[in-house]
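Box 3.1 A note on notation
Throughout this textbook, protein chains are presented in two layers. The first layer is the amino acid sequence; the second is a token string describing backbone geometry. Keep the layers aligned when reading.
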Amino acid sequence: MLLRTLVLLGTFSVTLTAVADAAGEKSLRETLAASSNVRQVYAADDRSTLVIPNHTNVQGEITPEFVKELQALCPTPLQVNKHSKVQDPITGKMVERMGIVPFDGKEITEGLSCKGEFSVPLVFGETRSSQTMSAFFVKSFIIQHERPQPPVYKTVALPEPSKIIVPEEGPVTFLKDTPIESSIGRGIVAAVDGLASLFGSKEVYFDDIDLFQYLAALAKKTGAAQRFVINQPIYTQQLGWQDHFEEVDTPKAMAYVFANQDRKKWFVSLNGPVKMVATMKHEGKGKPKSYIALDRGLEDIDFVPLGGRPKD
């Protein structure tokens, strides 16, 4: 994936780097953002981080240098909670059991953890098959932190947090694919009417995850509470695929937004000093559509609230 740049009066990029805290020590998120082995970092909240390392080998795999760096960031040996075959002491048969085993140092995988620091609940990548084998190549992953992290992100698509402002109301219309490869395998030029006052232009390379990060940064800056609603389509023989909207927690929302799923639709609302809702809809192979509405919440959306919460 190539770094994306904003298309403004000219072309420039903004990449956040880590800022040491008062004690001179960097958090895990800051360290990852500052690493030359990491291309992008997205911070959905205080404890959920999407990490996109550099991929430099022929297969497009995460580089060994980054794996070593992640190992060095853990004060204890990395471990993996995985299926393994063990001998049943009663029957003597080999059975599969979940258990914690030492990390082999080869590939980032789901279930990877650093005791007291972080875990990796989800990885993203692609499966490649040949006549003789099939293999899954991990390209990015989500980290769940044990301790709160500062609101640091690293992406050329957004300005630094101090420049994040409440957008104008209006559409974010994704116009066309571009030769620039994005975090999900494609580049998009967007007409960002609702963010034009910030970017100074209506054309910007912008992915779903960048809009998601923008809203997260705005919520953090203003103290607004966020809620996430995603589409989980249900299929019936009588009606075919039908939209079914559910409220989800932050890690699940981030994974849904980042993954390029068919029929993807999501909503993010902010409620506090700033009240607004952003919508994003992907339908078939058509262009995605998004809209930013101010002074509104989720009241017009039919969805299943999380944990019995009121809808708004």
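The chain has a mean pLDDT of 75. The helical segments are 28-34, 64-73, 196-199, 208-222, 250-258.
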